[in-house]
Amino acid sequence: MPCEQHVPESPDRLRRHVQLVLTDSSEGFRVHELDRWSRNNSSQFPTYSREDEYPMDYGSYQVGQSQDPLRISPFLVLPTMKSSMCQRSILHCHGNPAIERDAPSAAPGPAIAPALHTPGRRCLATQAQQSAATQESDDKRERVVILGSGWGGYTLSRRLSPKTYAPLILSPRSYFVFTPLLTNTASGSLDFSNIVEPVRDPRSKVDFIQGAARGVNLKKKTVLCEATVVKSGVTESPRTLEEHRGTEEGPETRNQQPMQPYLQWEQGEMFEVPYDKLVIAVGAVSRTFGTPGVRENAMFFKDIGDAKRVKRRVRECFELAVLPFTTPEMRKWLLNFAIVGAGPTGIELAASLRDFIYSDLMVLYPSLNEIPKITLYDVAPKVLSMFDESLSRYAMETMKREGVDIKTSHHVKSLRWGAPGAPPPYHMDPKRCLTLTTEEDGELGVGMCVWVTGNAMPKFITESLESVDEFPANSVHSIEGSSTVTTDAEKAPWKFKKAPKEGPLLVDGYLRVQLQNEKGQTAVLRDVFALGDNAMPEKGAPPATAQATSQEAKWLANRLNKNDVGQTPPFSFRDLGTMAYIGDERALMQIPHSGDGGASSFLPEGIKGRTASLIWKTAYISMSISWRNKLRVAFRWMLNRFFGRDISRF
């Protein structure tokens, strides 16, 4: 059934009537249908041209005379559109206040729609969106905004009661990464999709906005956000400065670009998202300790993109090494892979790359036999310092026997592009090697350097969450044990309470964020929480592991669902054990005992070897989030035994 939308005459700007006729279609209203209809009715539309200046409108068209244009965005009309929908402000009148004033107004959007509105752009609501808007207006649930889609944010969102809360994840990543198996993707043992879970899931009742938090207004209870849907670098990396996000792709795939300001499409639109409760779970970035050249030239290992870059660079170095004009000395440097940091991530990455190189790549590159080398550096006197001495020693002996060169008590001084001894300037050249300088060994040529030396706070924690503009009296639970807020306390300058060295947010035993003023007073916020690597309880701080973050998220979800925050014992971390893969189908497993906070005194202190590897694989298959990925991980590991790992480079 055709439907009509009339725009009344305006004496100020518009001296004519415009009538837009749309027809219902099972496939929705398409751009080519608008084009055909406009050509067949050219008498009604004197001019018709593409609006190239607005690429974000995906098919916007200009209809009407040049002095008073109308822009129509048909891409927003979904297949569910009914005739009644045509009564809802179909005409998008940009730059024409008269038409905008006279056109019928659309139905109110969801609660967060004003936060997403961009001046100068109007969106056409579908029938489904109108229904959602009506439900939203009657929704009595509390809006819980969760910053981050990692172990803390993703777990919490799935555990909150949908009857009580309306969770919304705000994150630059639209997916969750099962990080314990991230090293397996870098070595080709698993596909990247095997360890990824989408945040948008039709089976969950969790909303999602792809954006990065840039600030929090505690008084108004809003989060200032920047849209990151079309940004080249959506996750914060120490490699790239904020004004140079265009080079985020990595040094191994593109030439170094000159310093330049943001491109226009890189500038994410700013908007605000209101909340009833806020949970900060943005995680951490890699700590560089200010080592010269590391931020610009090293690779990091936090996300799927990092694993892709590591795998691609390894294959790239092998291809460069077999080129006929590559010198033997350069070949040796290209195939020397350095990993800085001998914690669980560094150990597992070195072990996985060792398996990948010696079991798969050596078959393809027989002329390079005995040349590849993996070197592991750490300032500590031993590897895996969180494990028992016997397990740590076993890991070091096993990995050295398998060909991994472990150099403890070594201090990295700098990292630059170019061969050892090359004169400056040191221009970036992915076709050549890098030079890693250590205090003990001097300059060493390496084809790749992966930096996994610990955590640092992201800029959102260190800069955005610093001072408090307006004291949130209505959000304060107590000040120094008092439940009342005085006028003097409100006027005093407040800031977020943080740990003195590392810089994470200091939270109380119930994971509530705290404020402090110059007088030394502490204010506890009742509706702002923090968990994971960006938070530190003042008493009994858990380790910075996925296990600890997941426990915090589950505990907080239970407390919020029961509405008893502050009425139960505070959060307490329970150590369930620590595992690490050390290569050649061998692993370590440290089991906690009663003296360590566990309850497994009847078990041995540790398990090692192939038995531990079997437990390691079984545990991580069972811990994978979806049944789809549980089956895919198990099936892929089985295929590797018969057909080898994936060696593709892309």
Automatic annotation (TrEMBL):
Domain (External alternative NADH-ubiquinone oxidoreductase-like C-terminal): residue spans on this chain: 576-646
Compositionally biased region (Basic and acidic residues): 239-252
Keywords per UniProt: FAD, Flavoprotein, NAD, Oxidoreductase
Residue ranges annotated for the FAD/NAD(P)-binding domain, each copy included: 143-454
Record bears the keyword Aminoacyl-tRNA synthetase: no
Cellular component, GO, one term: mitochondrion
GO molecular function, one term: NADH dehydrogenase activity
Region feature (Disordered): 235-257
Gene3D superfamilies in the cross-refs: 3.50.50.100
SUPFAM superfamilies recorded: FAD/NAD(P)-binding domain
Pfam families: NDH2_C, Pyr_redox_2
InterPro entries to which the protein is assigned, alphabetical: FAD/NAD-bd_sf, FAD/NAD-binding_dom, NDH-2, NDH2-like_C
Family per similarity comment: Belongs to the NADH dehydrogenase family.
Designated name of the protein: Uncharacterized protein
Lineage per the UniProt record: Eukaryota, Fungi, Dikarya, Ascomycota, Pezizomycotina
